[in-house]
Amino acid sequence: MTLEVILFYAFALLAIGSALLVVSLKNLARALFLFFIVLFAMAGLYLFALADFVAITQILIYVGGVLILMIFAFMLSNKELLADLQNTSKQFLSLPNWQAAVLAIGFLAAISYGIYEWQDFTPDWITTNLRNGQVIKPTDNTINEIGYKFITQYVLAFEVISIFLLMVLIGAAHISRREEQA
Amino acid sequence: MITLTHCLVVSACIFCIGLYAVLAKRNAIMVLVGIELMINAAILNFVAFGKYDESNYGGQIFALFAIVLAAAAVAVGLAIILNVYRKNKTINLDDITDLRD
Amino acid sequence: MDFLTNISPISCSLLVVLLPFLAFLYQAIVGRKARSGNVSLVAISLSAILSIYLFWNQSPIESNIEWFRIGDKRFFLGILLNNTTLLMQALVSIVALPVHIYSKAYMKGDSGIHRYWMYLSLFCFAMLGLVVSSNLLQLYIFWELVGFASYLLIGFWFTKESAAQANKKAFIINRIGDLGFLIGLAIVYAQFGTFNIVELFAVNGLAENWFSQVNSLSGTWLTVAGCAFFLGAMAKSAQFPLHVWLPDAMEGPTSVSSLIHAATMVAAGVFLLATVFPLLNETVLLIIAIIGTTTALLAAFFALTQNDIKKILAFSTISQLGFMVVGIGIGAWDAALFHLTTHAFFKCLLFLAAGAVIHEMAHFKHETNLDFDPQDINFMGGLKNYMPKTALLMGIASLALAGFPLTSGFLSKDALVISTFEWAVAKGGLYYAFPIILIAVSLMTSFYIGRLILKTFFGDFAFAKNLKAAKIHEASKTMIYPMAFLALFCLFIVFSWNPISYHLSWVLKEFNLTYTFEEIHSLHILIPVILTVGSLLMWWIGYQLYIQKKQQVKQNALFRFSFNQGYLNEFYAKTIIKPTLLLANFSYWFDRTIIDGLVDLLSKITVALSNLFAWVDKYIVDGIVNAFGSIAYGTGNLLRWVQNGRLQSYLGFAFTMVLLGLIYLIVI
Predict the structure, then answer these.
(1) NCBIfam families recorded for this chain (chain C) (predicted)?
(2) Are C228 and C275 contained in the same domain?
(3) Could B82 and A76 be called an inter-chain contact, meaning their C-beta atoms sit closer than 8 Å?
(4) What is the torsion angle, in degrees rounded to the nearest 10, for the CA atoms of residue C332, residue C334, residue C337 and residue C339?
């Protein structure tokens, strides 16, 4: 067992365990901070897929943007509300939770089964690329490549996503505007 | 050697946990967190598959797009949650049943 | 004239029959507007002229057309002309003509006069068709038609309860006779396979050779057939005991009574018997003679005490018909037809004269507002001073009826009585009763007709003191002339040059019948003398009783028996009508209790069944339907829970579906 594998398992366990804690904790603040851990662990896992730029972006956007936003929103909600939510969640296994758990486990089983069933059937494009050696190698400068790709091959999607982001910005600002000012 | 299967299994676990959060959590923010988990699971899949596509970098590019979309979704989602809170004085999804006939 | 002389007797006779029918159609179509009756009058006049033109001594001639066919049986319509039918046709049309003229005055102003002419034309058509029919089936049809026309005319004033009752009575009693006729027809057809009168009843025809037929019916059937035909004749010719309808039939207009119920239709029975005469065997003839004598006697007896002028004449008619029937019974059907002919004229005249009297009395009653029955002879008297012509004409007719010398009645009646006597002599023993009774009846006839004349025209008028308020006039000319015309036919001269001997009358000469009995010359002197002297005696008694009022008429049992017409109506009421009513009541009860009970039971069962079905429907069928509804409702209610407005639930369902889809994909 190489260090690489050990690290992968460590990150995987960290991510899964943290995620489990996130969904099982009653305390919203703790859950949100544990969500940090999940996101970090996920970013770490991306590295094993040789996606260093994605991992960095993950940390930047999620940790720097999304999470801050969430905590900000959490901060905006009043304490009574949070207390109320905690109180109503006192039961260990309420009916919807139980159903959700069953559903989630069902999905996990189905997906695991799928993975297990088809792990031997590697898609053609993967085998072709493996044969031709067209796989991302740890030595590749992915940031360069992604930069080129963004402004050449994926320029349309890139522009569309920028417009989309602008729309989201405006929309979010509009939605969260106070009613009295409308 | 980290194979594709490893990533997929982890991704599946994260996805299901996110699913559970979306379905079970009463707090709207936690539902949003669940969605983020699911998106992350998807991103993990993207990058895991993208590792075998050097010529296009499709996996990583779309992972980035997904991250952006997730961020946008969170932004809009939080704005909506804020509005819902203002309107209903609660973000408990059990109490928000305006869709009921 | 070639046109007239070349016309065949058959088409001529056809015209005679059809002219009144055309008049009937005209009256029926034009209806209320045709009040004058001129069309009917013209039609019957032409018929009369044509029938006179045709009259007498045609060689027997017959014409048939096929009417319809049943299998290989062919049925014909046809006209038969021989002396009998020609005599009858001429008689009917000649008697009908004055009656038509008379009716113009008599029925004037009646609101239903258009119907009157219509019915009268219908009757003439039917009667003329009846007498010239060439086969029995056709004769039967006209027979019914005549009965129907009679029914209509008796009930002409149908708003009057008694008239409605009378025509019902006439109709029902005629049905009995028609039944007999029909049975006779059936037997004849079964035996001979034909209805043709010539084939059946000609000299040496089929009827005389009953037993020579292949597959002949037994002799009993011959008797039955004879009796059946006689039953038909009995009802039509008002023979005892089926005579009861005729006195009631006087409810019709008097002109109708004179034509139908005195002269023509009632004679149809005698005509029928004369036609089927060869079919009648000894037994039947004896029955006929007995019935005829009984009828003649009883009717004359009843006539003695009646007060209604028309009723007296009606019973007189029945009595005279009895004479004719006796004539048939003794085999002297030529004498019967002769008497029929003479009787038609004088009885018609009697009725018309009586009608004139009634007309005046009714008029008088209307003018003076007195309350009396205008037909009751007790309220008349002395009318000869006011209506001398009517009195004279009626007197002539009465003499004819009584069989006084120099009248036609003398010839025909004597022919009958003398023939009967000779027949009785030939038979001997109890058969002497027949001529003796007939002589007695003749004397009674003289008495009652004398009583009628005396009470009506002689003595003092009952309402003489009221004469200032209203006058009694002579009948109008349109009434007198037809009566005078008929009076002409009451004289001997029309029928025979010799006023004494009936043998010389052309009617009898032409029939040229050979009797089964010997002629006894002494009787030809004796009987007329007895009858004439007897009649004179009777009139003297009547004069003493009714004019001089020497002695009060005793109201003894016999009188009451006669006055109440032998209690026959009461007898029928007790023996026939009451049981019929009882039967009807029983049937009604049976119908109500048993039949209706069954129906009710059935309906109750039905109701119960339907209740059961309703229950089944309600709880089983509807239950099933409701169950479906409930299931749908329950499902809906169940699924309503799904629609709880919680996003997470929706999402959960969505994912459940996805999961199920995945499982499906995996399993498959």
Answers:
(1) NDH_I_L
(2) yes
(3) yes
(4) -70
Do C126 and C51 share a domain, yes or no? Answer: yes
Best of B15, B17, B19, B23 to disrupt the C interface (most C CBs within 10 Å) is B23
Q: Is B79 domain-assigned? A: yes
Residue B34, in any domain of the structure: yes
Mean pLDDT of C352-371: 80
CB atoms within 10 A of CB C39: 20
Q: Do A35 and B27 touch (CB under 8 A)?
A: no
Task: Tell me which residue of B39, B62, B41 sits closest to B50, measured CA to CA.
Answer: B62
Q: Which residues of C touch B100 (CB under 8 A)?
A: 643-646
CATH number at residue B48: 1.10.287.3510
Question: Which residue of chain A has the CA closest to B63?
Answer: A54
CB-nearest to C652 from A103, A110, A117 is A103
Task: Note whether B47 contacts A: Cβ–Cβ < 8 A.
Answer: yes
If one counts the domains in chain C, the total is: 3
Residue B63 lies in domain: 4-88
Q: Where are the domains of chain A?
A: 1-90, 124-182
Query: Which residues form the domain of C593?
Result: 571-667
The whole model's pTM is what? 0.61
Predicted local distance difference test score (pLDDT) of residue C61 = 77
For residue B93, how far is the Cα from the chain centroid?
Answer: 18
Phi-psi region of A57 (alpha: psi -120 to 50; beta: other; left: phi over 0): alpha
Number of domains in chain B: 1
Lowest mean pLDDT among A9-23, C239-253, C311-325, C615-629: C239-253
Q: Which residue of B lies nearest to C643 if distances are taken between CA atoms?
A: B100
**Together in a domain, C322 and C232:** yes
Q: Are residues C76 and C165 in the same domain?
A: no
DSSP string, C111-174: TTHHHHHHHHHHHHHHHHHHHHBSBHHHHHHHHHHHHHHHHHHHTTTTTSHHHHHHHHHHHHHH
ipTM score: 0.87
> What tokens does C556 get?
């003894």
Same domain, C206 and C189: yes
- Per-residue buried b or exposed e for B32-46, using 16+ beta carbons within 10 Å of the residue's own CB: bbbbbbbbbbbbbbb
Question: What residues of chain A lie within 8 A of the CB of B92, using their CB?
Answer: 81, 84-85, 88
Are residues C586 and C551 located together in one domain of the fold? Answer: no
